[in-house]
Amino acid sequence: MRSTRALRLLAWGAVAVGLATPLVRHRLKLPVPVVSALTWPAPAALALAAPRTPLRDVGIYAVQMWAYFAHYDMPDDDAEVLFERLRIDYPIRWDRALGLGDCPTTRLQHALGREGHVGILDYALSAVHWSWFAVPHGTLVYILLRHRRHYPRSAVLMSACFDLGCMIYWLVPTAPPWWAARNGNMPPVRRIMAEAGERAWGRLWRPLYHSLEGNPFAAMPSLHFGTSIMAARVLSQVGRRHGALGWAYALALGFGLVYLGEHYVVDLVAGLALAEAIWRGAPAMEPAARLVAGAIRRLEPRAG
Question: According to the model, what pLDDT value does residue 3 have?
């Protein structure tokens, strides 16, 4: 009993440290390996600290996403080092090849948009873009509430999509089209989402956008698209109509990301490839995952 209580106490301590570390890393000037070592164990620690309930399962995913966000944001801490590693030209070359001479973003904005004017299509696609902040996580909440047996696998797959994409952001920081155009690396590209935001939200837009912006060079692969594909895959497990709705959203978002100037087509292709690789590779990884999960489950406290 004493060893069990000690394990629970240590687990709660690890959860607290994992939650606090991203908040104090600037003040304490913590190096990246230390931040990683203190934040990534927190989800497993929560499994050891609390009995299994739906609320705890949501908490594990939330703690995992907190660790993800800290690592997503960290490359931007040292702007000079990030600029030295920044890749700008390679997605432009690939997109020009896909667009037969012009980037698809440029073609779409010339065909459907009008400089200085924000129309219904611009607002609609911007709203689809903004809704992404809720879609991957909302999908998992729906799965937990209505199809609970699918939740553990779905949460692991979605988390893997976020985490592996974040690793690529660290390895290959890539500028999005709106940034490349602003800095003269390609013909002008409007950032329509920002134009629509300023008109729709007024003075609230700047603080709202700044709170959500994070690393501006997390463009390749597009996790907006990749996690939406994963949401569609997860929803397809529980019904055809669910899956169709997920795929329709993913396709609308993908079109919007290119038209709005947020991503190149090649970013979307990479996001799709990432999600599909995780989805199709999951069966091969499940035996190892079940082994680890079983070891943690044997140490979990029992509900009641």
Answer: 65
